Amino acid sequence: MKKFIRVMKALSDPNRVRVLKILEGKTLCVCEIQAILGLAQSTVSKHMKILEDAGLVERERQGSWIIYSQAQLPESPYSVVMLRELRGWLDDDARLAAMTKKLPEAAKLRR
Length: 111
Description:
Number of domains: 1
Radius of gyration: 13 Å
Order of helices and strands: HHEHHEEHHH
């Protein structure tokens, strides 16, 4: 039950769901996610920690950067199902589409 609740709580915040959608097929650092969401770095870091604890994202250190991606082999079966199903959801969300358009500009922050 604990793993299920952790995943559901992680998905209960719209910004965390948006992050997961934006991470579909790509990797982003905290500063890129921050630019896309328009949130403070500390807030983004807290969101990413919750997603990581739920097994929905993975992080990798590249020098001084922490790079996030969707979890490729989640341990929790609930994370597996939710990530798979999320791929087909929310593609018509206007706010998410606007955030996706910000990706090229945000990518310049990592260079």
